[in-house]
Amino acid sequence: MKALGIYFLVNLITISLLFSQQGISDYQFVTIDQELSQNTVSAMAQDQEGFLWIGSRSGLNRYDGINMMSFMHDERDSTSLCNNYIRSLYIGTNNRVFVGSLAGGYCIYNDTDGTFGKLPTAERYPELDHVTVNAFYEDQKGNIWIATERKGLFMWRAQDQVIVQYRHNENDSWGISSNTVTGVIGDGRGNLWVSTWGGGLNLFDTNTKRFIHYRHDEEDVNSPYSNIIRCMTGGSDGHIWLGTDRGVDRVSYDDRGKYRFEHMVIKSEEDEEPFVLDLIEDKKQRLWIGSENHGLGILDTDDGAYHWYTVDSKKEYSIKNNSIWSLFEDQKGVIWVGTFNKGIFKLDEGNRKFPVYKHNPYDETSLTHNAVSSFYEDKKGNVWIGTDGGGLDYWDTEAESFTHYRKDEYPQMSNQVLSVMIDSQENVWVGNWQGGALVKRKGSSTFKKFKLPPGIKVREGRENVFSIREDQEGKLWFAVFRSGIQVYDPKTETFEVFTHDEDDEQSLSSNLTRYIFEDSKGRFWIGTEGGGLNVLEDPSTGVFRRFNHSADDTTTISDNTVQCVLEDNQGNIWVGTSGGVNLYNPENDSFTRYGYDEGFADVVIHSILSDDKGMLWMSTNKGLVRFDPETGKVRNFDLNDGLQSMEFFKHSSFKLSTGALLFGGVDGFNVIHPAQVSDVFEEPKVYLVDFKVSNESIKNMAGVHLEKGLIEGGQVRLNYDQNDFDFEFAQINFSQTSKNEYAYRLKNYDKTWQQAGNRREAYYTNVPPGSYTFEVRGTDNGGEWSSQEASFSLVVDPPWYASVWAYVLYSMFLLGVLYWAFQVIINRERLQTKLMVEHMELSKMQELDQMKSSFFANISHEFRSPLTLILGPLKAMIEKKNYVSNEEQVHMMLRNAENLLNLINQLLELSKLESGKMRLELVTKDVTAFLKPIVHSFSSLASRNNMAYKVVMPKGAVELSFDKDKLEKIVVNLLSNAFKYTNDYGKVTVSLREEEDKVVLEVKDDGIGIPQEDQDYIFNRYYRVRDHKSRKSKGTGIGLSLTKELVELHHGHIAFKSEENEGTSFEVHLFKGTMHFEAEDFELEDEQVAPISANQGIYEIEESLYKSASSNDQIAEEEDKKLPLILVTEDNTDIRLYIKSILEEEYRVIQAEDGNDGVSKAQEFIPDLIISDVMMPGKDGLELCEEIKSNVKTSHIPVILLTAKASNDSALTGFELGADYYITKPFNPKLLSLRVRNALKTRDQIRGQLLNKSTFNINPKNVKIASRDEEFIAKAVAVIEENISNSEFYVDDLGRELGMSRMQLYRKLKGLIGQSANEFIRSIRLKRAAQLIRQDELNISEITYQVGFNDLQYFRDCFKKQYGVNPSEYAQDVKEKIN
After folding, report:
1. How many other C-beta atoms can be found within 10 angstroms of the C-beta atom of residue 409?
2. Which of 130, 175, 503, 1304 has the fewest C-beta atoms lying within 10 Å of its C-beta?
């Protein structure tokens, strides 16, 4: 008994110590938002997937932190819940959820199809269908033990699926002690412990199948404290905890192999040992005790300390009922507390909510008002709190009580407190809204008014004091809204006032001051409303520097409303504004902005505090923002974290000496312990809640088989018309689930992850047939994406017409069609190929015919030109019977005959090459000696054309086998082309060089070059390169072709390089030796190569080109008696000189060397007739004729065209363009003279008709003409008529009006009407005079001046000259005719 007394004494001391600790306990029991099926929680368990199962007196609930799924009993459905009153829950292997009910037996949940069933048994055991099941246990062998009410203990043996029942038998001392079994657990040593109601504790020996009884014995301390054991749980070190109607017992196994019973004296606040309803030992070895009406007890198993948690209306997070029916610790260590009629609560120590203090109308010692505006801590660690509407509170942090200073109790107080501050003398200063300032001196218990200096537009005692600060010198700074800054010096009891001065940029930026802050350097930072930030570095100067927001400069402060300023542990200045927080950069007076882009929930910063680790805590309109300046990481806190409200009060924050942070808001204030805020989050597990097809859950759909459950990553096959479906998903997270975000994708359908935010559904419509996998992932509470993903596979079958067999049939049919089509196409292609080949052959023949036609047309020109210069002079000799001609004509005839012979020889050689009859006549000689006279014969041509001609030959002999005649043609052709296509003052170089096995002849010029598009065709027979400037083709098209074939006949090759407008280089490669030739290719005799004369005709391409020095002098208007002027346009100099020699005896002749020159000279000199060749470079004869006839200055000039083309089409084209005559080369010189004479005579006749009044009336106002020449005459008449009375209107004036020079006008009028310009003007004036005389309205003098004559006598002379009578006689004749 003595030992028992000592035992009770120790427990009593322990109780007293524990009660003393109750005030410091701050566990937060948070209720969940989701609604249970019923609010009395009787049992709880967590399955292997993480779902929390909650049993109630009316239904079973499954909770994932967001969704609460309820299961109810349905009598019509045998697969539904066995009974709605749940007594026990247990999670077995394979994630089987065992459910024990009140008088409804048990059932097991099947997650695959969402149904409930039972254990498989060999025989049905109906007694289990209606029992009350208190507990389950699965042993190491997989046997299931079922504790029942009044039916004893059942065991389902896994080996043979047989149920064994153990019942109490009074006659069996080794049987179970009671039929009301409350619990079954194993102890890890192979033993089974069975607790009973009234029968004490039983130890079941699994080997002997015997029950050992442990009952209460008053005489034995080592016995249970009560036989009524309500609950039982295992401990961490193998001991057993018993919950009885008289408290808690611990059963332990001692070193002697015996079990020891120890009663734990744990008395409630009512000093009673509780009736224990449930027990759990958590991972921290704390014992949680759920009692009947005594609340929740916690026992520290190490030191025996305990504490009771009961209903406390003063605390936000206390339990709401003292009857604790069930307890559970989940996988993450969260303690769940099930209560009677008040639902479920959780204690999550890893995710504590911020403590909040609010006004409680039922507690006078609570906060007086919820709008908290300011804080300040005194030396005792207590806090003065200002409220906006409730005055001032003094918070005793130890007693958790608030003392109030309200206006109703203290009339001098104001209920609208804006700021509070304690100075170094421990005086308490209070700033009010429209209440000025108050002060409570040290030692005084009352506040008194403190008079501020008169403000701007503010009544005394009605000031708005937003901020009060004491500086390092003990001076007090008041931020008085609308009155600037007022500084009070307690030593001198004087004020210094700083206000805004519009004329002083160094004054305060605004009088709307809100905040004052002094940094460690003694600088004062003043925040204003709308006026930006001010810095006063030296108060003695009164000079402020201003920082204002600029929308165009991101380095300025983010907003002009500055709410707060803070200096952090590193000395950095942070400025909170209505547009974010700003870091001041002292190097350049700039700011770095932080806000939405960095992840802030809001940018209206009301206050800033820095914790001990340098983190910035900011209050906003949307919660709290924590910002790490070093890493830039941001974390936002909201209502789920326990905030008083999302909105906080301006400037309302304070850091306590303990490191705790206070933030005041519109609905109380929060106390934040930064060290207790964890940033370690469990990786969330995402799962599929449901899968719906056309808004119907797959769990309820008939005919759709779901392989595996949704949670296990099931698979389903859908018909083609079941392609509208949606997924519902969630996280198993019991802490702040609203912060979790989701992303999902349907593989093979979505290209990227779809961001869902907080939405937990994904919808898909019209998904095409195919195989898909739906994947979803989520974030933890800190915003990091989880690596775990939930998935679900589905197959949308195609319709029958898109099935595999259908496609096989389609494929077979398609293959048949393709085979048929292939055959058709093959046959068609063969036919088309045949036609194409025929067409290509025809096209080639047509192309060849066209090339040949073009070639022969060109060759005919090449033939006719020299024939003209041969036959023409011969015919002239015969006609004149003069067979002695001048030397010049004889040389011209001989030169053109030799050119004609050379051309014919080329054609013959080409013909031989085509027929294969051409053979080589090789000699082996010094090729240098052979080529020198040939290449030097071009020197005179180079000299005449002012060209630089360079010949480079080896000094020694170069032996080569070659055909002399053919090599001569190769060299001449290449040099001829070089000179032909090189402009005057150009350069031609010919060089011969010897290489190891060959000789290379190079001809290079800097002429016009060969266009890129022509370079592939220049060696083609009959192909002629077009001059891109003139768009005409030059040459015959056989020279280079013949050259290439002659080179290849020597078994050599020819190559070239050319750039347009830069020049061309040809290289002929001839190989040394004789091995590549046949023996019959060599000549038998070896003749010496005779030197070729430089004057020999065949090499003289252009012999002595004489250009007559045509004077082309200015033709004066008065030169009427000169011969007619003929313009000869011909690109061949010989023909041009020959035509001139034919015509120069009767006419004046001027020359033009091509079409462009011809048009220019025609417009300059206005000739009486133009003779032009048709085929010329630049403009040809047809283009010249068209331009002459379309120009009003030259349209009257007759044009004779000379052509080598004998076709009618060419003649018709010429006549259509306005040509007057067509003469074909070679022409008879006499015929040419006659054509010229007739053309001029015809022009004279037309001129006479124009002058003849009967055929064409050029009197004023009577001109009606159509041709271009007639239009010109009509215009000239109209101009003269407009100026007919102007005696100063002369020839120059008429020319200016008609756009012609004096000479051009003269030639034009002379050619058209045979009158000079003066005669034409005078004629018109006189005809107008005759008209006026016939009208008989003016006298002769008046008419004289009316028609532009100043001299009456001169008018009479001119009139008589034109009409044969003087004006008076003409008037008389008119009158007589009228009479």
Report:
1. 9
2. 503
